Amino acid sequence: MGVTLILSLPAVVIALVVGIFALKRQSGDRRNLPPGCFGWPVVGESLSFLFGKPEKFVCDRMKKYSPHIFKTKILGEKTAVICGPDGHKFLFSNDQKIFTAFRPHSMQKLFRSYQTSASAQIPREAESKLLKSPGFLKPEALVRYLGKMDYITQQQIQTYWEGKVQVKAFPLAKILTLSLACRFFVGTDEPERISRLINYFDDITIGLHSIPLNFPGTNFYRANKSAAAIRKELRTIIKEKKAAMTSGAPMLDILSNMIVATDTSGKHMPEMEIADKIMGLLVAGYSTVATAMTFFMKYVGERPDIYSKILAEHMEISESKKDGELLDWNDIQKMKYSWNVLCEVMRLTPPLQGTFREALSDFTYAGYTIPKGWKVYWTVNTTNKNPEYFPDPEMFKPSRYEDDKVFPPFTFVPFGGGPRMCPGKEYARLAILTFVHNVVKRFKWEIVCPEEKIIGDMMPTPEKGLPVRISSH
């Protein structure tokens, strides 16, 4: 008995010290923190965030705590979720002033360049300048790629869609978007290489927002293995690209420009870092675009009236062109109704749920103080289905977008906003509209499983791949 008591004393003392320290910290923190709950020790509310619907996670807490802001702990970080159009405006207008970008720990570990020393990396500002300087993602540069985008899309539809009675839209959208991204960012469109990479990118997409537990059976473990496989493939591509450039090949893609880019001291990026950054661009240009294409097929397949209007728009464009003539910028500008439809697709099923920032200093919002170092989560789910901004929010209604001034500012922001607005917005718009043009003018379709379950909470995924019955015009 005495021995047991003696052995247990250190544990009791430690518990008392930890408890007193926690109480002192709590009582000593006079800042008016937002309402909310940090959840369980260590994991916080991560399980509810990752495995419950993100929309439900956010909306439930807005109702319980505040429609403007609440605190939580997700993915290992104390986090403030800033809500509504005023919250969007505050975040977007203070990027790089009060906030800086933050990648969750799972993402940092998958993209290894974030773990290397700062001296080995091109700074983030220089990286951003690198993307912008050749103007790769600006409309004037994308116009030059539009014909190739149309050609690749036509090839994919001929290979995987034509002559079929039924196809699964989601897998085929993923093959198309990865083919387009590989051609645009890397300069390769080898079908065998791309088909080899598809499953790896699926694993990474799931692992980006996961608890970083690296043992067999976890999402993160699979994502980590897939990232290593992609990195290996990309290093092979980098060596091939360097050899081609030595032989005088033109630098027509982002990879070529990354290879020649230098930091302020004249040093080139290491190959491993180039591979990481290209992998990030490919992930960004893959899953979200494929998701938007897939749910376009779903919602339009359920609404013949909307399909007829889209078809009329694209047949008019098609009839104005010569046989074999590819899409051009003027054609894209004529796809106004189609883009309205896609906006409604992205409102109902956002391809991107949200992103994280980090507070550079203490700041006050809606009467509450958010401490320096806390993470701030921005999400479209605080406005997308609010009936105050979108009457009958569950209804698929493309006519909402016919008047650009119909919504209050910052209520519909599928690509974010401010300095960190998605740089690939225009690329995504062209890729999706090119797909719409080609699939609508060739086929009509109906949904095979109208009640198909949508899984993958951070990245919406039709459980059966969205099978559709197709027939040619």
TrEMBL record:
Location(s) in or outside the cell: Membrane
Binding site for heme: C422
One Gene Ontology cellular component annotation held by this UniProt entry: membrane
Superkingdom of origin: Eukaryota
Membrane topology annotation: Single-pass membrane protein
Ranges that cross the membrane: 6-23, 278-300
Keyword vocabulary terms for this entry: Heme, Iron, Membrane, Metal-binding, Monooxygenase, Oxidoreductase, Transmembrane, Transmembrane helix
One Pfam family from the record: p450
GO molecular function terms attached to this record: heme binding; iron ion binding; monooxygenase activity; oxidoreductase activity, acting on paired donors, with incorporation or reduction of molecular oxygen
Co-factor requirement: heme
Family per similarity comment: Belongs to the cytochrome P450 family.
Protein name, UniProt field: Cytochrome P450
